[in-house]
Amino acid sequence: MSQSLVDLICHRVSFPRLGLPAPDSKVLARVYRSALRAPDHMRLRPWRYLLVEGRARMTLGDLFCDAAERDDPDLTGNQRQKFRDMPMRAPVIVIAVSTNIEHPKVPVQEQVISCGVGIGYMLLALQAEGFGGVWRTGPLAENSCVKDGLGIARHESLVGFLYLGTPESSAKAIPDLDVDNFFKPWIP
Prior knowledge:
- 39% of the residues lie in helices and 17% in strands.
- It has helices spanning 5-10, 25-35, 56-71, 77-85, 108-128, 139-142, 144-149; strands at residues 18-19, 47-53, 92-98, 132-136, 157-167.
- Helix 2 runs antiparallel to helix 5.
- The relative contact order is 0.22.
- The model has no long low-confidence stretch (mean pLDDT 95).
């Protein structure tokens, strides 16, 4: 029996250790399609996604290392290798980019959020299909060397790196949060 959508959402977790097999092309098509259903004010479609697989992950690792070396020329060999190994943590990486279209009714912040919702939808779709993912950002998402190397224009935002594959460990138990701690009536 399949779980309800609300149950799936309430039990979503990130899987930081991902391996093979990667989802096949049919599963990936459904996962990617889910991102395109993110709320999209004025139907701007203010997102694009770069797919990194196979040997391209090594090239991305070299780009990460180059960016880190520009920021800190004194990196040790181990630190350099850590940056090179980052993209090898999953068989597929989706790089989410908000295209930040100038529009009088849709601020850039809303477009970035829309792109982020797309990442969230992909995480849910992956888990529903029996796979896992983890959304990563950090300084590399803001690094101009990384953005240039990926062909991300100055006006665009790198919203995140979505690593995806087969979870290599069981899901962490995440405690349920008390809704009343976060949702309060507004009293004017």
